[in-house]
Amino acid sequence: MSRQSPLITVMVKAARAAGRGLARDFGEVENLQVSKKGPGDFVTAADHRAEQVIYNELSRARPGYGFVMEERGIVEGTDKTNRFIVDPLDGTLNFMHGIPHFSVSIGHEREGQLHAGVVFDVIRGDIYWAEKGHGAWLENWRLKVATRIKLSQAILATGTPFIGHAEERHELFGVELSTLTRATTGIRRFGSAALDLAFVAAGKFDGFWERQLKPWDIAAGVVLVREAGGIVEDIDGGDLLNTGNIIAANPSLTPKLKAKILEAKKAHQAEKPS
């Protein structure tokens, strides 16, 4: 058992506080005000309320820290070395449709490096947390990534592009999916990248990949997977938090999964008319 640091304690408290409000709103989801940010991209009043709760809790506990928040955007702090990266409701579409699978995700960045993460599975009441150098945990249970070394035995998680994404994105995903369904035991699409990464850290999923995610989708989950002994990289070798092109798995599976995804990309490029 690992004792939570003061930082993790603060982050967990904020995540639980936001989660309580989300749980209440989920019971009355048909009455929530919903607005549209873009094609297929929605935000509810619950998102805004949860984000405000998190902002209030963390600002009070860590005055001066900056924020990167899904709804509020970038909030500059007086402390330029620390900031929180927050998704108050990861899985908004699930939430809106009454599907009980969504989360609160809070990452912490110190001196430009991801340092800590908390993912709260609101419906199950599970807190996943990790801090650099202190391991990854589900409540008080130490987490380790799965040990499978064969891609043919692996179950992967991913997210799918939706209306509003460029045609190129849809086409590439189709080739990736075709390639990986032929190489793996199964692929799951649950609708919350933060929980997908938490499940990789817990050894439930063997790996995860997706493109064009936002920093708040993955910041906490990246720390969880790394502290559980996994590898998290940018698919194409870029800056992960800028591109959002993420791959995560154990050290044995990561290069095999990455090779298949890059194989799919090469095949897709070869299909294009010259």
Features of this protein?
eight-stranded mixed sheet; alpha+beta; globular; Fructose-1,6-Bisphosphatase, Chain A, domain 1; D-Maltodextrin-Binding Protein, domain 2; 274 residues; 8 helices; five-stranded mixed sheet
In short:
This protein has about 270 residues and is of the alpha+beta class. It has helices at about 5-25, 45-60, 90-95, 165-180, 195-200, 215-225, 240-245, 255-270, and strands spanning about 35-40, 40-45, 65-70, 75, 80-90, 105-110, 115-120, 125-130, 135-140, 140, 155-160, 185-190, 205-210, 230-235, 245-250. The chain has two domains: about 5-140, Fructose-1,6-Bisphosphatase, Chain A, domain 1 (2-Layer Sandwich); about 150-270, 3-Layer(aba) Sandwich (D-Maltodextrin-Binding Protein, domain 2).
Q: Topology, pairings included?
A:
Blueprint: H1 6-26, E1 34-38, E2 41-44, H2 45-61, E3 65-69, E4 73-75, E5 79-90, H3 92-96, E6 103-110, E7 113-121, E8 126-131, E9 136-138, E10 141-142, E11 155-158, H4 167-181, E12 186-188, H5 193-201, E13 207-210, H6 215-227, E14 231-234, H7 240-243, E15 246-249, H8 253-271
Parallel strand pairs: 3-5, 11-12, 11-13
Antiparallel strand pairs: 1-2, 3-4, 5-6, 6-7, 7-8, 8-9, 9-10, 13-15, 14-15
Helix pairs in contact: 1-2, 4-8, 5-6
